[in-house]
Amino acid sequence: MISEKTITDFIYREADLLDTMQWQAWLDLFHPEGRYWMPLEWQQQDPVLQPSLMYEDLLLMKVRIERLAGERTFSQKPKSRCHHLLQAPQILVCDPAAGTFKARTSFLYTETRGDTLERFSGWASHDLVPVGDELKIRLKRIDLVNFDAPFGNIQLFM
Amino acid sequence: MAKYGKNPRAIGGLVRDAEVHRDVYVDPEVFDLEMEHLFPNSWIYVGHASQLSKAGDFITANIGRQPVVASRHTDGSIHLFYNRCPHKGVKIASEPCGNTGKFFRCPYHAWSFKTDGSLLAIPLKKGYEGTGFTDTQANDGLSRIKNVVVYRDFIFARLSESGVGFEDYFGESLSTIDNMVDRSPEGKLAVEATPIRYMHTCNWKMLVENQTDTCHPMVAHESSAGTAIKVWQREQGNSTETPMAVQLYGPFMSPYEFYEQSGIRIWPNGHGHTGVANSIHSNYSDVEGYLGQMVAAYGEKRAHEILGEVRHNTVYFPNIMVKGAVQILRNFIPIAVDRTLVESWVYRLVGAPDKLYERALMYNRFINAPTSIVGHDDLEMYERAQEGLKSNGNQWVNLRRLYESNEAPDVTAVINGTSERQMRNQFHAWAKFITMDMDQPVEAAE
């Protein structure tokens, strides 16, 4: 039975897989129709006809991940690393009967490469669905507090 | 000690026929002179009239280092001012865009100005009686920028009071803007999206040059576009439809021969474009219903003419690039000698199917965003160049690919698509416009 704790554990594990660069295990958390979305506008509703920083399906996420290890991926020489610091997830919906699970988690994210270190903060929203006994990500949405700022390269996943 | 200020001869010496000195990218004094001379002498993109749809709407921008504000007046006219209160210099508008209502009001002492810039009211006005205030510049209100041209809703301005007129400056290069606007069945574009903003720690000219550099995509973008093709070939399974994403990434990996025969067209004053015969935008899927709309609006022949023009990147000297076939304008805004803010704008084709807007937005986030893997490839190269150019081993940047010794400046020509001639064209214009308003040459420092 999926409980609030199951959701919370899932979210912590997801961040940990990113921080430890277990990319394939991280991709496996997504539903086949899953999406990763980083809006560019305040309280954005539409990922398709409004501008976004990222809106990617599994194919595009795979491209991003395979690229990280590419021999001629010069922007990953040296490689980037990342760190997530999460607040306790706020469970918005935990409805096993309907199969609907939603949470919102405040985070601090650090991405570093070479001598540079960048910090970002915002909220991660998880829209999860059960597949067999497991939860899968239908949508992971990242709302940065300063989504409209001019950033340098953001190379990994928040 | 200043090497280049008020020294047009020394500046001219930075640009050879097919080489430029590294100081144009790394010397802070050269950057200062660009802000003081090059940008004011050139016609600079400020914004799009659709951002000023109602009276009282305003947008703010910088031309070089000068903060400006554009506003829509009650009679529908567009005005451009320096963004400073004539009293103590406070910026009157601080947001990128907004609506100021019937007047601008300075937040410091509540001086107020009509949306055509004229002075509306000053609190305690009687304190100025008999002081000679009416003879001051402040009495005229916000300082107006006189040379403003709204060309098919694109707002351009030249800060210098004298210089090259708008039509002479852009000439035939305006055909790329025409083509982008004509792609709307209503002949109209609209800005509905905020721009994607991307900070580059490199000189602004590296970005401009890269727009017509056709020998880097297959090398630098093997990591992103190359991987996208590889993953798609492996994972497509039984699908027969190429997703939009693969259509956008794929052509970046086109071979040298493709770019060679695509061609580059150069125009006077540093403008030019890649993709004359065809381009990486040539083979996108048709969007259902669109051709019918275009034929209905323009007739069969003209509609095909418009849609057959698939120019790749058009550089408008000095610092914007327009991509008509996907309705994108990139503004390379210089912040410092080694710092450039890139704002990438998407225009919606008014009256066209949503799918075209979706594609334009997708292209913008795939290629122009700080989260774009293609963008990562490029920025890495610019940053390495910004570092590498500190080397004293060789102080010249080589732009000799397909150089011909009899190349005439300021001409229109179509050339091999892998030529570096457009970069030479830009640097010729660079030397011309940066020195245009300098005093007669003083003796070069020995």
Task: Tell me about this structure.
Chain A is of the alpha+beta class. Chain A is 20% helix and 44% strand. Chain A has helices at 4-19, 23-27, 58-68, and strands at 30-39, 52-56, 80-86, 90-95, 100-113, 116-131, 134-144. The longest helix of chain A is centred in the N-terminal third of the chain and has 16 residues, at 4-19. The radius of gyration of chain A is 16 Å and the shape is globular. The model of chain A has no long low-confidence stretch (mean pLDDT 97). Chain B is of the alpha+beta class. In chain B, a hairpin with a 2-residue loop joins strand 18 (328-336) and strand 19. In chain B, helix 3 crosses helix 15 and helix 11 (290-298) crosses helix 12. Mean pLDDT of chain B is 96; it is low at 441-446. The A-B interface holds A 38, 40-41, 48-55, 59-60, 62-64, 66-67, 70, 72-76, 148-155 and B 193-194, 196-201, 220, 222-224, 226-228, 230-232, 235, 243, 245, 249, 341-342, 346, 354, 357-358, 361-362, 364-365, 369-371, 373, 375-377, 379-381, 384.
Structural class of chain B: alpha+beta
Describe the global form of chain B: globular
Low-confidence stretches of chain A: none
Largest sheet of chain A: 7 strands, mixed
**What characteristic shape of chain A results from the CA principal axes?**
globular
Average predicted local confidence, pLDDT of chain A: 97
Count of DSSP-assigned helices of chain B: 15
Largest interface: A-B, 32 and 43 residues
Please give the alpha-carbon distance between the first and last residues of chain B: 13 Å
Low-confidence runs of chain B (pLDDT<50, min 5 residues)?
441-446
- The percent range for strand residues of chain B is 15-25%
Number of extended strands of chain B: 21
Termini gap of chain A: 28 Å
Q: What is the assembly state of the chains in this entry? A: heterodimer
What is the N-to-C order of secondary-structure elements of chain A (H for helix, E for strand)? HHEEHEEEEE
User: Total helix count of chain A?
Assistant: 3
Kindly state the percentage of residues in helix of chain A.
Answer: 10-25%
Q: What Rg of chain B, in angstroms, do the CA atoms define? A: 23 Å
Number of strands of chain A: 7
Largest sheet of chain B: 9 strands, antiparallel
GO molecular function, one term (chain A): dioxygenase activity
InterPro entries (chain A): NTF2-like_dom_sf, Rng_hydr_dOase-bsu
Protein name (chain A): Aromatic-ring-hydroxylating dioxygenase subunit beta
Keywords (chain A): Dioxygenase, Oxidoreductase
